[in-house]
Structures are given as C-alpha cells and as structure tokens.
C-alpha cells in the first residue's frame, strides 16, 4: 500500500485469507458475475469505477481486500481504507496523494455519509482518480440511491461506473463457503461438522470464518482432526 503521512499511521492491514479464490461464487450465479467484474477492473480490462453494496456479512470487505491482494500481485499500488475505522481523521489529509495510487478501495461508506467534509473529499477524490486514469472500488450496505448523502453530486459520482449488489449466501452456500475456506487452510471439514457449526453459530459469514480460524489454530496445537466433539469443546457450542 502507499506510504501515508507519518501522523496518519493507520495500522490498516489486509486479511491474508481475503482472496478472489476464497470467495464462494459458483459459476453462473450473480456473485460470480460480480467477481468477474472485479477481476476485470483489477486487470484494467473492465470498468474503472465500481460500487458494491449488500447486507452485512455478504462479503463486501472480503471482496475489497481481495481486489487489493490481486492488484498487488500484478504489481499495482493499492490503498484500502475502512472508513468506519477512519472517520475520526481529516479526510483531505487522508486522501492526499491517493490520485497516484492504481487502485483505491473505500469500505464502509455509510460511516461518513451525511458529513459534508467527507462527502466533498470523496467527490474530489473521484474526480482526481478519473483525471489520472486510476481505479476506485467502493462498498456500502445501501445502494447509491439509498445512501443518506447531502451532496447530490457525490451520489451522481457513485453511479458513474458499475453498481453491483452482492447477494447473501443461503445456509447451503455458507456450508460450501466454509468448506472452501477450510480446504484453503489445509483442513478437512466434513459435511456433518460443517452443518453442526452453521446450525449453532450466527449465520454471519465473517463470524463463521473467524471461528474456523480458531479451530485451525486449536487443531494445529492439539494435532486433532475437526470432529463434532472437538469443535464443541473449542467453540463451547
């Protein structure tokens, strides 16, 4: 990621597990189309400005961070900014120099909606990135039309490029996604164990993946396979 001013040492890190390959989107589904659009954006063959929206837990943060990872692998400069965590900063300082970055990702846009300083700064950032031929990926829980914005010109900018709704997964899809993530970690997660986890934990995919990480660490430490008794013991469920 780009170097930010020393006073804005943000401590923003990307999750190593956030990759396009780890995002469960079966072929011919709507989310597979979203994934393809993001890949093309990173490659430079698609739309430069993309707005993602969807319900909490649908994978917006994962997709933004995955785009950053993919861009870095291609030698591009990136900056991921989780606005919910950065709302206390001065936006003009935070955005200084971003027009030189190949891919800028703004996560949690509603966290600063309704604040005139932030809205104007994001509006100006859009214009600068366009003028410099850069790419912007934005995520929010609402569509651009539904955002509580005061600057209508910003709402217009948010609809410049492609707008994708990311669909939430069904319980069956969440099981497949959990097993996909487990395989990426070198874990064997049977159907019975995966169903046991999903039936007893919150359905939020972020929570499910976090608990899988706990199981991974415990399995490695105790040299145990993921069985229902072991999962029950580690997660106390």
TrEMBL record:
GO process terms (BP): DNA replication initiation; negative regulation of DNA-templated DNA replication initiation
One Pfam family named in its UniProt record: Bac_DnaA
Domain annotation Hda lid: ranges: 171-235
Superkingdom classification of source: Bacteria
UniProt keyword annotations, A-Z: DNA replication
Domain Chromosomal replication initiator protein DnaA ATPAse: 14-164
Gene3D superfamilies in the record: 1.10.8.60, P-loop containing nucleotide triphosphate hydrolases
NCBIfam families referenced in this protein's UniProt entry, alphabetically: DnaA_homol_Hda
The family this protein is said to belong to: Belongs to the DnaA family.
Protein name: DnaA regulatory inactivator Hda
Organism placement in taxonomy: Bacteria, Pseudomonadati, Pseudomonadota, Gammaproteobacteria, Cellvibrionales
């Amino acid at each position: 990621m780009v170097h930010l001013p020393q006073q804005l040492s943000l401590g923003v890190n990307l999750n190593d597990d956030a990759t396009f390959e780890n995002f469960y989107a079966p072929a011919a589904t709507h989310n597979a189309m979203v994934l393809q659009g993001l890949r093309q954006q990173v490659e430079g063959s698609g739309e430069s400005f993309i707005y993602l929206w969807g319900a909490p837990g649908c994978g917006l943060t994962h997709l933004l961070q995955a785009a950053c990872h993919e861009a870095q692998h291609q030698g591009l400069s990136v900056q991921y900014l989780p606005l919910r965590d950065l709302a206390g900063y001065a936006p003009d300082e935070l955005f200084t120099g971003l027009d030189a970055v190949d891919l800028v990702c703004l996560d949690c846009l509603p966290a600063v909606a309704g604040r005139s300083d932030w809205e104007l700064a994001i509006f100006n950032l859009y214009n600068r990135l366009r003028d410099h031929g850069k790419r912007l990926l934005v995520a929010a829980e609402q569509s651009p039309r539904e955002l509580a914005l005061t600057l209508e010109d910003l709402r217009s900018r948010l609809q410049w490029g492609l707008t994708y709704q990311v669909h939430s997964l069904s319980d069956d899809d969440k099981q497949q996604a959990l097993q996909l993530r487990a395989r990426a970690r070198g874990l064997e997660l049977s159907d019975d164990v995966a169903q046991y986890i999903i039936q007893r934990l919150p359905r939020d995919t972020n929570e499910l993946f976090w608990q899988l990480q706990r199981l991974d660490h415990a399995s490695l430490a105790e040299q145990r396979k993921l069985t229902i008794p072991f999962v029950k013991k580690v997660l106390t469920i």
